[in-house]
TrEMBL record:
GO terms for cellular component: cytosol. It comes from Magnetospirillum gryphiswaldense (strain DSM 6361 / JCM 21280 / NBRC 15271 / MSR-1). Residues 1-164 form the B12-binding domain. This is Radical SAM domain protein. GO terms for molecular function: 4 iron, 4 sulfur cluster binding; catalytic activity; cobalamin binding; metal ion binding. The keyword DNA damage does not apply.
Length: 501
């Protein structure tokens, strides 16, 4: 049987003048693949190598400027891979901005084990499968969900057969195995309950807890010491233009059953003593009745298990009773995805089916129940006018002042694999030589300078409201003081940017 090594690359945290916060979390996608291989009787030897876990920093000077890497350097990665001596090497890449590191790991892997088969997967690869396959260090590309496709590929390789698997590319002609769709190129697992629970035993869970609790969590508000991410559903039927989830998870919403979720939580609580759950579904509250059943599970737990929704929930479908039960079940805060304060922009630019009046109801309910609420907004989209953008800034500040709804303001990023990315490329609204980043779009209505000027003013006013709320509410003072102390470096950086220091 073959030896399979599944890898997570190191991260670029400073490159081409941009800074990114180092992030570490348990690699759920890889652990789900391992569990699926076990469940289906694949008898090969499986190892997992996460190059981030050393938490070391390496700085080099390259053609584009200074580059700082988080995790093992190339020499260490090559040594680790060579010691394991795998027959097949799978490399997971979550974000387009980090794709160069995934590609570099593939090159290092080929140098360390020239005869190994290198397979790449993840969101970026799912959008650009053919371009990825052109790289000499990549033998196969897996598009979309990896569990079934990785098993099928391994069986073909063991049998010495040429793979002909929908969603797996090994030759240019395998393009015919993809669907003719600009965003969704493959089919997806229909019954997600058929998947086993992730194979947490394959990694050093304690090391992840240690790093997350000491500043390397992907979440901006990490209150747990032993926190985990849980995904209870896959896919999203909505078509927000900036969202990239459909290439890897599809439009069809597929949810785990209450029994599956109950077993998953029990495993994590009993074996790993978790103290916090981040529900990171792309659409946790899509089915309100199903969400109520999730609350029933959480309300059964004694003592209560704190949780939140850092990936955002829908702003509609809420009642006062549902908000009350959410708080009583252990929720520490909800994040709601609003996007724009202008209904016409929501309808025609973002293409999000959301009634802003229902969002205001949610704000009233959470304020009344004392449940913290954060809101996501995005400005700088093609089709917006400056007055629309100004209206969203005003709305966000007014709701923060009145209801304490923390405004998470995002400047548009035209990510690959999104409708926004296609519009921007078609209309030439962005310099394609730049690495993907926020606020790079120029339209007939605005420039990046217009957006930046307004964003800085918004940041200054947000800080003033933050101070005002801290001084007028004992509850906010305690919470905000903890927030400032825990994230003092990031907050100081935001303060400097807001005031041009």
């Amino acid at each position: 049987m073959k030896r399979l090594l599944l890898c997570i690359p190191n991260q670029s945290v400073h490159y081409r003048g941009m800074n990114a916060r180092p992030q570490v979390s348990i690699p759920l996608g890889i652990l789900s693949i391992v569990a699926f291989l076990r469940e289906n009787g694949w008898a090969g030897d499986v190892r997992v190598y996460d190059a981030r876990l050393s938490a070391s920093f390496t700085t080099t000077q390259e053609k584009g400027g200074r580059v700082t890497l988080f995790g093992d350097d190339e020499a260490t990665m090559g040594k680790r891979i060579a010691e394991i001596a795998p027959d097949v090497i799978g490399i997971s890449n979550m974000f387009s901005a980090q794709f160069p590191q995934a590609l570099r790991m593939a090159e290092v892997a080929k140098q360390a084990c020239p005869n190994a088969v290198v397979v790449m997967g993840g969101p970026h690869v799912s959008v650009f499968p053919e371009e990825t396959l052109e790289q000499p260090c990549v033998d196969y590309v897996v598009v979309g969900e990896g569990e079934e496709r990785m098993l099928a590929l391994l069986r073909c390789l063991e049998a010495g057969e040429t793979p002909a698997i929908p969603g797996v590319l090994g030759r240019p002609e395998d393009r015919r195995l993809l669907r003719d769709h600009p965003l969704v190129k493959v089919n997806f697992i229909k019954e997600v309950d058929d998947l086993p629970l992730p194979a947490y035993d394959m990694v050093d869970v304690e090391r992840y807890f240690e790093l997350q609790a000491n500043g390397f969590s992907p979440r901006t508000r990490e209150w747990g010491q032993r926190a985990v991410t849980m995904i209870t559903s896959r896919g999203c039927p909505h078509r927000c233009t900036f969202c990239s989830i459909h290439a890897t998870m599809g439009y069809r919403w597929r949810a785990h059953s209450p029994d599956y979720i109950r077993r998953h939580i029990a495993l994590l609580r009993e074996r790993y003593a978790i103290d916090f759950i981040h529900f990171e579904d792309d659409n946790l509250t899509h089915d309100s009745e199903r969400y109520d059943r999730l609350l029933n599970i959480l309300l059964e737990l004694l003592p209560r298990l704190p949780w939140d929704t850092p990936n955002g929930v829908r702003g509609d479908g809420w009642t006062l009773e549902r908000v009350r039960r959410t708080r009583e079940s252990g929720c520490q805060y909800l994040a709601v995805a609003i996007e724009s304060a202008v209904q016409n922009v929501l309808d025609k630019v973002v293409r999000k089916r959301l009634d802003l009046a229902q969002v205001d109801n949610l704000m009233v309910f959470t304020h009344q129940e004392g449940l913290r609420l954060m809101a996501f907004y995005v400005v700088g989209l093609p089709g917006e006018r400056l007055e629309d953008i100004d209206a969203t800034f005003r709305y966000a500040l007014a709701r923060y002042f009145r209801f304490g709804v923390w405004p998470g303001m995002n400047l548009a990023v035209a990510l690959p694999g999104t409708e926004l990315g296609r519009i921007v490329e078609r209309d030439g609204l962005r310099d394609p030589s730049l690495p993907y980043a926020a606020n790079q779009l120029t339209t007939s209505e605005f420039s990046p300078a217009d957006i930046q000027k307004r964003f800085r003013r918004f940041q200054r006013l947000k800080i003033l409201i933050f101070l005002w709320r801290s001084l007028t509410s004992w509850r906010d003072l305690r919470y905000n003081a903890s927030l400032v102390w825990r994230y003092r470096s990031s907050i100081a950086n935001e303060f400097r940017k807001a005031f041009g220091m």
